[in-house]
Amino acid sequence: MLIPNSEAHEISNDSEDPLKNRVGPEVFYQAAIDNLPHWFIRKIRKDAASSCDWLCAAGQGTDLLAQRLNIKVTGVDAADDLIETARSRYARPEFLVANYLDFGVDNSAATHDVIFVINKLQRFTNPELVLENIAARAKKYLVVVIPYREYRRSSSHASSFDRGNIPASVAGSFTLIYSAVTQNAAPEDTGVDGEQIVLIYASGLEIPTLGLYLGDLKIGKESVRPEQQLERLRKELKATNQLFLDRTHQLEAKLRARDAELSARNHELSAVRHSTSWRVTSPLRSLGSAAHHGKRALLSVARLTYRRMPLPTAWKQAVRRSLLGEALPSTPASPTTPQAAIQGKWAVAPVFTPPLRGGLGRADVFVWGQADWHAQSVPQWQTALEMAHRGHRVYYFTPRFGDEEKPGFRLQTVTDNGFLNVVHLNVGNPVSIDDLNAGSMMAEALRASLVLFLIQAAPASIISILQHPFWLTWADQVPNRHLIYEISGDYQNWVGQEPGLGKLHERAIRAADLVLAPSEALAQQVRDLGGNVLLPAVDNDDVGVSRARDIIQRIEQYVPPLVSLVLVTYNKLELTDACLHSLEKNTQYKNFEVIVVDNDSRDSTPEYLREWASRGENRKIILNSDNRGFAAANNQGMREARGEYLVLLNNDTYVTPGWLGTLVRHLRRNPDIGIVGPVTNNIGNESKIQISYDSMAEMESAARIYTSSNMGEELPLYTAAFFCVAFPRAIYERVGDLDEAFGIGMFEDDDYCRRVQQNGHTVVCAEDVFIHHHHSASFNLMGMERRIKLFNDNRQVYESKWGPWVPHEYREGVKPRE
């Protein structure tokens, strides 16, 4: 069956081609080549088979096929400019401008012995029809490579493939003769997390010439290494087991609560019924019951009479209020529906569903606008549009605020795929952002509306692009942000009108990770203030696109300071595994290393850590032959650390999205801070907050609500508990190692905080970072008598250095841990 004409032009316009601008297409071609059977390669070489690479784009993969397989290959694409680029780059393959999905072209005009369809079909909603149309151009073979059993399906994939929807034959003339499943070798390059499958289809006339046996076909076999399959099965089993435990815990908790409530009510009821007052008042209760039923009957008659009264609505409402003492409920406003953005109509959206996230590692983009979206120039639009095209969720915060007292926001969708939206935050009585007092006048309302937006959008990592310094406070405080200050070309005008904005402008330069300057004069001003400046390249033929791509390239190339995470383990493998999994899942910070120090665990922890370290870069393990204690093991890790910032993290923790970048931001924002820690559910001081959840999935949601509501806020501490703390390397170099006199543990965190404070720095708790803590997982392995002795001994060590120990306190309204 040929693909219908309406579908045939799905990618004919190269400006809309979703297959272009992908990173590393040669990775997929390499996977295909590495997994082609030797008998197939020998056959097409022997037959001097003519080959076609369909949708070759700029020809990288086509050239790889020609070089590695040593065959004649023709690259085919519908885009003239891409074919011209391919011809200028690669001499060996031939390149042809043709649209093989064009219904109006004679399908017999250009045929090939072999057609390669590599990393294309998943982008069509009707891949079988597309493959049938392509098969009409093939004589002998179709070679197809597609993502398979995607663990995390990319939002750019219109189709997903598994054993249930891969056809065994194509167009009635090609039969599947070979398949191989392979683990994607470079998900960070391709955006594909999981496996791929290589398929070879042969024509009915070609199959008898192959002389194949069952062992040659490999259909149904898995080529993924056994250890990879085992790891995947372990993760699936662990997730299923955790879900079972979570649900069991919830049901048991509800059952206990209901039993307790029922028991209490029965006890109260029994006490009341046996009381003297109950017996004495029995006649009165009988009279009250009769009166109650009589009143209900009277009200029923009144309502029926009211409904049948032939009076105007206003009169009936007055009668109801007068006779029945009730107010007629107001008619709810009919819900509004989103209209096209170009019409400028709005839908009030107290709750919205964010679009799917883009490719792996795509941060959300918050653009803090200088003017309303429609008032911006095309070059200013272009960066946001280009980032949305690349799979980022982009939110443009307009200074055209919603004039409503109640906190909230309105959304205006700009792009068809929903990835670019204009956000109007409610502020009540808005004023111009060029007014120096605007920040203080609208601060409370603006913050409340932004908090609601953050809770619903749930960003894990944010590229915060500041176009006007009015927004600086919020652009700087959103979680895990990478701040870019884009200086407007006419900034001199608004600074001249309101000189106070000049100070905000200078603060923005100092706070930003990158400053975009429109001229060399402004770039020099940025350098004088110590800013990291970029002068975007300008292409006179296409200013907006060229500038946007230059900006995005610099954003993607930005590498934040290295952070070293040090974990100490001692048995409790299940907690260590959960902690390391949370680091992999929820650490969106681009530059960190993990150093795990094991204190002679007697379970399977050492073997697990060896395997864990082999599966990724920037992972290092130290396996001690004895239990050196908390302080000594952390010192080992810190001596190996290379980071500009150090983080000590217990293995009985579970981190939440954006945690690391936000902790580091507190340290970078305020150089007076020596140590910063997060809030948590379980600890013995002010870092513990009142929060409840029944599962880890609920935990992340509850944590997001709390941290969003407290973005940018800090709480001074006397002592930070070292279940999780971050501090600059400069502090470590001045203060030194943890004191190993405390042995296995306890009081080394109190001691280190005193030394940091003695050095002139503060200790704070970041209210916008939450980390789940099981607490005392290692100490719980000790008997109570031994724990008490350890506490008393280490307290004496501490007090010999600092005087009487001040017991830790809880914040007001928070109960001590149970």
- Based on the structure given, which CATH architecture of the largest domain is correct? Alpha-Beta Complex
Radius of gyration: 33 Å
User: Structural class of the secondary elements?
Assistant: alpha/beta
Strand elements, count: 26
Give the helix tally.
27
Number of domains: 3
Residue-averaged pLDDT, rounded? 79
In CATH terms, the superfamily of the largest domain is Spore Coat Polysaccharide Biosynthesis Protein SpsA, Chain A
What kind of sheet is the major sheet? 9 strands, mixed
Mind sketching the topology for me?
Elements: H1 5-8, H2 26-34, H3 38-46, E1 50-54, H4 60-69, E2 72-77, H5 80-89, E3 94-97, E4 112-118, H6 127-135, E5 138-148, E6 169-170, E7 174-183, H7 187-190, E8 195-203, H8 214-217, H9 226-273, H10 276-280, H11 282-308, H12 313-324, E9 347-348, E10 364-368, H13 378-389, E11 394-397, E12 409-413, E13 420-425, H14 438-457, E14 462-466, H15 472-477, E15 481-486, H16 491-497, H17 500-511, E16 514-516, H18 520-528, E17 533-534, H19 543-557, E18 563-569, H20 573-586, E19 592-598, H21 605-613, E20 619-623, H22 630-640, E21 645-650, E22 653-655, H23 659-669, E23 673-680, H24 696-709, E24 714-716, E25 724-728, H25 729-735, H26 748-758, E26 762-773, H27 784-802
Parallel strand pairs: 1-2, 1-4, 2-3, 4-5, 10-11, 10-14, 11-13, 14-15, 15-16, 16-17, 18-19, 18-21, 19-20, 23-26
Antiparallel strand pairs: 5-8, 6-7, 7-8, 9-12, 12-13, 21-25, 22-26, 24-26
Helix pairs in contact: 2-4, 11-12, 13-19, 14-24
